[in-house]
Design brief:
The structure is a homodimer of 102-residue chains. The first copy, chain A, has 102 residues and is an alpha+beta fold. Chain A has one domain: Arc Repressor Mutant, subunit A, CATH 1.10.10.10. Chain A is built from 5 helices and 3 strands, in the order H-H-E-H-H-E-E-H. A 3-stranded antiparallel β-sheet of chain A has the order 1-3-2. At the A-B interface, helix 1, helix 2 and helix 5 of A face helix 1, helix 2 and helix 5 of B. Chain A binds a DNA duplex (30 and 30 nucleotides) through helix 1, helix 4 and strand 3.
Chain lengths: 102, 102
DNA sequence: CGATATACTTCGTGATACGATGTATATCGT
DNA sequence: ACGATATACATCGTATCACGAAGTATATCG
């Protein structure tokens, strides 16, 4: 998919991936993969950004000798998803405008 | 609407605005306005980019003493719109993923 | 005659997706 | 026993891009 099109979709995809239960980097990538391709460098950039924006919280825990950082969504994160749903109406009308035959 | 979300949508909106008949900057902004807000500086950047990518062609003509640059879509431009329609299927599935309740 | 609309242009800035690269451990197959 | 692969997180540099600000210039309307 077009890179530019992914912008604005990725943040919200990551939030959706931790919406129901906390998750960690590698799992998020796998969960999101069926919908969008997401590289590790991109994901960790996004996670840091969302953390700064207080849309998620982090806790570190050891899992089988390896460190894992578990991410949980906050109310602000849930609010971000709601905003996206609002924006979706506009996006759909844009699609109609672009795809219309005449 | 979220700026990041607009990326990838704007190019295609501009192409859609000249899809059926040639148009010019000021008119494109007005035609697209009901769907997305688009500033002049953004539009002219986009027009230049699309021209470089050979998705549109330009001709200059005088109109009531003022210069106007008329833009027409090319086959590559029409192809770009088709690509967007393809991407749309993915975008919709992303929306389902993000907006699902569970 | 000033405000507003039309019309195009350039510059600088901030946001951001991604490839490349690096570190480190666990598991699986042969 | 050992190499490949999967798991897991991190950093850096680059290219792309939307936008506000500011500028130039003419036409129209009240």
């Amino acid at each position: 998919m077009d890179i530019q099109l992914k912008r604005g979709l990725l943040d919200v995809c990551v939030l959706a991936a931790i919406k129901n239960e906390e998750s960690y980097g590698y799992k998020i990538i796998k969960d999101v993969k069926p919908y969008v391709e997401l590289s590790e460098s991109t994901l960790y950039t996004i996670l840091k950004r969302l953390e700064t924006a207080e849309m998620l919280t982090v806790r570190s825990a050891e899992h089988e000798g390896r460190l894992r950082k578990y991410y949980s969504i906050t109310d602000a994160g849930l609010g971000r998803i709601d905003e996206f749903k609002e924006d979706w109406k506009e996006i759909e009308s844009i699609y109609q405008f672009v795809a219309r035959e005449c």
